[in-house]
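Table S5 (text form). Sequence records supplied for joint modeling of the two-component complex.
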Amino acid sequence: MTKGYSNEPMLDIFIYETEQNLEQLEISILSSERKKKITNDAINEIFRVMHTIKGSAAMMMFDNIASLAHAIEDLFFYIREEKPKGLDPVDIYDLVLTGIDVFKSEIEMLKQGREPEADHGELIESIHAYLSVIKGEGAPPASIETAVAPPASDHYYLTPIQTEPVDGCTAYEALLYFDEDCSMENVRAFAIVHSLKDIASQCCHYPENLIDDSTSAEIIREQGFVIQIHTEMAYKELFDYFAASSYVRAVDLKEMALCGNGEEPGAVARTADAGTVEDATPASDDSRSSHQSIISVDVAKLDRLMELMGEMVIAEAMVTQNPEVAGLEIDSFQKSARQLQKITVELQDVAMSIRMVPLSTTFHKMHRIVRDMTKKLDKEAELVLVGETTEVDKNIIEHISDPLMHLVRNAVDHGIERPEERLRNGKDGRGRVTLEAENVGGDVLIVIRDDGRGLNRDEIYKKALKQKLISPDAELTDREVMNLVFAPGFSTNEAVTEFSGRGVGMDVVVKNLEAVGGTISIESTPGQGTATIMKIPLTLAIIDGMNIRVGEAIYTLPTISIKETFRANVSSIVVDPSGNELIQVRGDWFSILRLHEKFDVEPDSRNLEDGIVIMVEQDEKYICLFADELLGQQQVVVKPLPLYIRQFKNIASLTGCTLLGDGSMSLILNVIGLIGSDGRIRRDES
Amino acid sequence: MTMEQVTAIDSSERTLQGRYLTFYMDEELYGMDIQHIIEIIGVQPITVVPEMPEYIRGITNLRGKIIPVMDARLRFRLEERDYDDRTCIIVLETGDVSMGMIVDAVSEVLELYSDDVDPPPEIGGGVADYIQGVGRSGDGVIMLLDCDLLLREGGDG
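The corresponding structure-token record, covering 843 residues in total, follows.
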């Protein structure tokens, strides 16, 4: 392979795999850290991941990444083999997490198309230093090299098999010979080993070091390439698999006797260095075998699919609601049209579900934040996740991970008190931050709850006054005061800490959420904690809409926000002194918003009894809309208003527009915008 | 320097300023650089968007793409006129912004050389703010509109 990466797909795969590995590693490190000890599983996993990263980074010629991974691998090689006593898990984990951060930033660089950063000499040094410390002070640094250097490649060295064979798996040993003129045998072999990961639960091979060691190609050429694997595949299948691999000339496949109780199979016993076998959780094997049914797809393709799905929904409506066939009674057409409708809806559900991603990855990232912050701030807190399997659209996830991070930081920084203070107040010294997610209708609710000191209403009020966010004579409810924390420039923290207090956080949170049509609110009980509630739409692309007509104009309301529709009765309508019309429905009074006045169009009738009243609700606020007619329900594809119009003015009462079945357009109404635009129109409890 | 050489230099100095689509508004001829023009369509149904200035007629569906439509007469404070069968929507695009512009009628595509184009008049107001130059062709003049300015500026002109 030449310098640089002419091979873009390879780079993509490298980035993708390394990210996955790092993420998985971080999660398991954090979970074993909570148990306050280093488990053998964790050591093995770190070792395995570092080994993989080292190998693939070296293949991609990212030497710096490879050498850092190598250093960490060395460290864990020692820990695994020698099992030194009295290790401080925190130190080790800190070291590994720092390493992970470096890898992450390197990956980020690669994603942006830049070369990875130069040198991590310092970190590598500190890893080596740590290694020599745990080896005992007496050990001169020079001996590290010899102690951890990989065994010379002139004898068989196989990675010790870490798990017992899983039920149904058979152990095989294969001897592969490559075509004589294929050259770069080591790379071919590496490719085969790489592809085996998907089908084999365990895999070891000789020569062990395929990429770093240039002599490996020669060894393979002369002696063949030895692979030992555990797999569920049958002999024949596996044989064909090897035979079909590119450049393979001859295959010699042997079934090996299964070993019990962690003894190495006979063939493997050749390895002098093979360590004792540790029990790994079967779960890790499950996760590996499930890989083969998952493929990664370019997001751009999914976006395109969604776009086409949108066109499809419109086209379907154009056919089935075609004015030419509307009045006709054709049984066969109706039947086929219904079939088309059904399939379109199903197809749409599937297309949407492809884009749906569980929140768990985003949520799990917060473990790290809580851990780092509690350490730095000298607090104790645990993060509890509830409903992390809730799925939301991928686009939305991207928009909420930053807000979530801010809110979790806030919860730990502002919310959770120091252990002494907590104990004094009769609480558990260990704080608790809960992340909850649940589906509520067309929205996802994400709640960040802490059991800390809560918000101080008076302090917020004073602060807001000082920062001139409110006028002194404004009368505000507790809830309104609490929600002042979302105002731009607001910060209650006196001192700006590393984590929060600059007063930009909440502002950014609100902006990010607004970008995906979400809302945020906060509830707090002093001394007992705070809950921040984010309400986010499940998806932005397609909604169930009700088309309504006002004069010649057609508008679409999200069906989910319509509470009821009815014909008004003059006797239930009053006009208040300022000219607002109110209507009484079952004892409650609601404001009426005449859409023809709001949008300045000529209605069929201005008489409230002639048209229809639609009661809509959003965030427990209600308003009654007056329109001429309901046209019917339809799935609509939300399209944003043209850029020119958005740049001109942000129209609060509109979400966007959509194409109707006959090719004409309707404007999609934003219920919250309609309610908000008319001042305080709320459910009146009188 | 011989005469031939002089003419050769002359013709090379007559650099092409651009190709312009010309159209009529209120009996006057206007031009717009053809590189901004996507297509010309007839008048089609337009959906009114509230809270927009009067000259933004609304939005229309151009084969699945939704574009705003502006009435050039109202934009340049000319008298409003009913649309007829010569009325056209010129679809413009600069950068990410697309826009349909309603004009009385389109005329032709003209090639103008740099020495055919004079700087815009000093007087401002109305259409004059959006003129990037005045082109001469035959015995008529063409007011060349600045498409970028027209689409960028949402103000009241």
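Note: Chain B touches chain A through 22 residues (CB under 8 Å).
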